[in-house]
Amino acid sequence: xxxxxxxxxxxxxxxxxxxxxxxxxxxxxxxxxxxxxxxxxxxxxxxxxxxxxxxxxxxxxxxxxxxxxxxxxxxxxxxxxxxxxxxxxxxxxxxxxxxxxxxxxxxxxxxxxxxxxxxxxxxxxxxxxxxxxxxxxxxxxxxxxxxxxxxxxxxxxxxxxxxxxxxxxxxxxxxxxxxxxxxxxxxxxxxxxxxxxxxxx
Length: 201
Prior knowledge:
- By secondary structure, the chain is mainly α.
- The protein has ten helices and no strands.
- It has helices spanning 3-35, 38-44, 48-54, 57-81, 84-110, 112-130, 135-148, 163-168, 186-191, 193-200.
């Protein structure tokens, strides 16, 4: 087998994988649509509550899956039949995707501070409203705070006046006090090393 034949086989295999990945995303999208976005809440975790109001995750998965499946089909057929037209279409789509990703990356780099502020403006209202109310969201945030050794998005003040504080008072998750065995009330949260690290950032 010559180099050209090897490259042809590898391109067919590679594009078959892309095609199967696209089919998987389409399947996941329809599954989410049928099950009421249960899969989406599992995949997106703490970001799901607010995302579902602005982006239909199932439609996004289906659309992305269709694009991937089309890309895989064009590349696979183009390589198999050695069709210049299909290969030109394939590489054109690849170029468009690459330019789009590069543009998004440059935009994210240029506006990283703005994106950080946007995330902060998103996180506090969602924590105030959903933490303690939505069990899945609460468990996801608890897991995130435990793993990252943080408290809320900014610090313990994210929970002050929240739905959770109305139910439990000024008692916070143990990660707000450095995962110690003491009861994590406001005084302990304020004096914890977690708060010190947050302040120094």
